[in-house]
Amino acid sequence: MSGGSDAVAAFAATTRRPYVEPPQLPGLPYVCLRVPTGGGKTFMAAHTVAIAADAFLRVENPVALWLVPSQAIRDQTVKTLKDREHPNSGALRDRFGDNVRVMTLAEALYAKRADYDGSACIIVATIQAFRVEDKEGRKVYDANGELMDHFTGLSAAVLPLLRLGPSGSPVPSLENVLRLHRPAVIVDEAHNVRGPLSFDTLAGLRPSMIVEYTATPVLESIPAKGVFASNVLHHVTAAELKAEEMVKLPIVLRGRPDPRCV
């Protein structure tokens, strides 16, 4: 796929279903993998970075923004992606070797241009951390002297893609660093990130693509309310994962009595 229109056509050809795009992100490759809870979403998402780099972005050192629903899950995700003995880390290193930099948002505020030029960079954060009313979020958009080296020697063609300060120069912010690199966005528990505010936040970062992982995708669009269905590219059931011995925790199904019979 070489662009948004190709992504729309490829999705329709693969799934036989129409592609739904939020108005804030026209033509952007934006798909969902529906995976049950405990089905190894983090492991698959780690492989997604490599697949995106090779099959779509065609770059050696991709930038990925990995969004999670809570700080607790953020900490857990960062830990497994940094732990060289963990399969989640292994999924990254199978493709990128030692040229992997996994960062929290706080660490990304100090990452230099050389980090992005020489490594696959994965920034793990919550979507809330990118909202300006959040204390951490304001740091994303504020000028930051630690990031000045990202904005030297830029071509005039790039400037309209960035947020400019009063002087007409790019604001040396993490937001602009991400806008420069057009990150591949991975969204864990994506059903929590489907409202108009989330779409606006994502659009402001100029993503190259978005891949959602969730057990409960949004399946119905209500445009009047800013609700748009997820583009479910593939759906795996708990039974299928169990048959392949790929479920981390036992799944116990219990029938509920019909309340009309009680």
UniProtKB/TrEMBL annotation:
UniProt keyword annotations, A-Z: ATP-binding, Helicase, Hydrolase, Nucleotide-binding
Record-linked InterPro entries: Helicase/UvrB_N, P-loop_NTPase
Keyword 4Fe-4S: no
Molecular function per GO: ATP binding; DNA binding; helicase activity; hydrolase activity
Presence of the UniProt keyword Cell inner membrane in the record: no
Record domain Helicase/UvrB N-terminal: where: 31-217
Protein name as it appears in the record: DEAD/DEAH box helicase family protein
Source organism (scientific name): Limobrevibacterium gyesilva
